[in-house]
Amino acid sequence: MQLQWIDYVIIVIYFAFVLGIGFVLKRFAQTSTDFFLSGRSIPAWITGLAFISANLGAQEVIGMGASGAKYGVATSHFYWIGAIPAMVFVGIFMMPFYYGSRARSVPEYLKLRFDEKTRGLNAISFAAMTVFSSGVSMYAMGKLLQLLLGWDFTLSVLLSAGIVLIYTYLGGLTSAIYNEVLQFFLIVAGFVPLVLVGLYDVGWWPGLSARLAREAVARGFDPGALTQSWQHMGSPANNPMGVEWFGLVMGLGFVLSFGYWCTDFLVVQRAMAADSMNAARRTPLIAALPKMVFPFLVILPGMIAIAVPAPSSIGFAQHRVEARPESSERPYALTATAQLGAPAVRDVQHSLIPPKLDANGKPVIDTEGRVALDYDLAIPMMLMHYFPAGMLGLGLCALMASFMSGMAGNTTAFNTVWTYDIYQSYIKPGASDAHYLAVGRGATVVGILISIAAAFVARQFNNIMDLLQLVFAFVNAPLFATFMLGMFWKRATGHGAFSGLLTGTLAAALHHGLTLPAGAAVGVKGGFLGQVLHTYPSEMAQNFWTAIFAWTTCFLVTILVSLFTEPRRDEELKGLVYALTPIPKDRNLPWYKQPAPLAIVVLAMTVVLNVIFW
Amino acid sequence: MDIRLPLGLMFAIHGALLAGFGAATASSTIYREHSLGINVNLWSGLGMLVFGATMLWLARRAR
User: Fold this and answer.
1) ipTM confidence
2) CA–CA separation, A37 vs A47, rounded Å?
3) How far apart are CA A273 and CA A288, in angstroms?
4) Which tens digits make up the pLDDT trace of B6-58?
5) How far is residue A559's CA from residue A490's CA, in Å, rounded to a whole number?
6) Distance from CA of B8 to the nearest CA of A (A)
7) pTM (two decimals)
8) Does B34 sit within 8 Å of A388, measured CB to CB?
9) Could you give the domains of chain A?
10) A383 to chain B nearest CA, in Å?
11) Is the pLDDT of residue A344 over 60?
12) Residues A451, A458: contact at Cβ < 8 Å?
């Protein structure tokens, strides 16, 4: 795959704007509040777009495309039963406490509501998680650019890290938010034409349904299994996700989604930067409007990719081999494809999505004897298939933008938690604001350096990354129970919260260690405690149930321990707990500026979408 | 700084470039090879140009 000059020009212009925004915003970052919270001065529509863009990292874009190809329309559950209800909840019910308490971070809210140790636990695990995720984001980007364009891995990682470093160092959160808005519109500009051309090619929705019906039958499901979201959720055997409706609604819809959207500082920080309580509450609601149509932008391309027959000239590998025969280092299946030769790949590749190849260049065959596909390439292959020079540059630019905003989002969340919740609390309290601003800038540099290191570790030892991701999943799983009890039950105590979090994490680890998804080997996928008590039909089902167990354990233990420990006095909890905080009223504003009517509109539209694709 | 300024400017530049490139390559085979004969560069470029110009106009009006 060779880029033309026009593609490079488009990418360079984008980089210039990204850096330019950083330089212009530098003079607005004078105090630590400016740097970490944008001086709480950003209007709602901008924080709203940043709220979803911060989450719309490339893992999300590429991962949702991959899931679209794997699971079809059912992937929309991540949006229409997952994200949207959680976003409405955080806007209506939780933002009054986050924004109203003047906490500067999510861990700081825990400190105000509970105690120091609960904050410490959350702050340290969150800080570690953000630098790590940022590293994984860099790794994924370097790997992809190397595969598609033959760019040097080290160079891609260092260049992207350098750009992110410059603009977050200079402009802090504002700079990150502005670039997230830019990225949002770039994704839309790149993906709307992609979906339109793709749909036109397959004969719009009827054509796509017909093709996916054949695909579903070939995989042993009902014809509608890839184009209907709820009808096949009765039993895990009937849908490609391998989950049943209860695990889906409770595990994904309730525990995981609420846990992420309501407690993850990465997204909540965007709302905290809003210019008023009203704007903070509307942030996730405004975000929900584009979020609910995003499945059409990111899931549909994956579905189209699996429905379009393999083109006569397959992929990038041949181009690449012609272009640079001398370079031998190809970690991500590339050498493999080249060695395999075109005819063999053509034999097994039936759609735009190429097969996964093992270290010897042979297609990987899964446990059921089928060729395993490299689903993560669904979106990149769509871009290269349907976009000529010009739009291809824009599409790649949108992908790079989402990688970089993922990194920037993590970096800005990290430097805030590090400075306020770790440095100011445990290392050096009571210093001047200028000092903390300098520490925040320093933390930006150090955080990015650690992320770069993580990216290279990920490249060498993929297993370590899987393991770390697993540990973070255990830590995150019970979080929402703590916040829910903290905000809605004034009797919950610090000791209760802390022990609930610990036992919840432990429960997640235990559950994971004693169960296994069907067809998986004992190890990182589960069963590592020596015994497999239950086998789940799929990894996703196992993850959902791990979350359900963790949440329930945390919920019960927190209540139990709270009842045996001393509660805090009501006066101390004003502004932190539902019963003791007046819910803000915005009666004098037009309806579309009031959170409650907006929430009703959002939920109604989500129900309609679920029904249409039922 | 009004965010519509950089946003509008970038989209206007990107849009103008793409539309110009699309117009110049209108008879090229790349559109038949990739996008089913549709000149995606031209149409997307025009769309982005309109969006960019609107953002710039809004930013100007707000001042």
Assistant:
1) 0.95
2) 11
3) 18
4) 999 999 999 999 999 988 887 888 888 788 888 888 899 999 999 999 999 99
5) 11
6) 10
7) 0.87
8) yes
9) 1-219+245-309+379-460 (1.20.1730.10), 317-378 (no CATH), 466-583 (no CATH)
10) 10
11) no
12) no
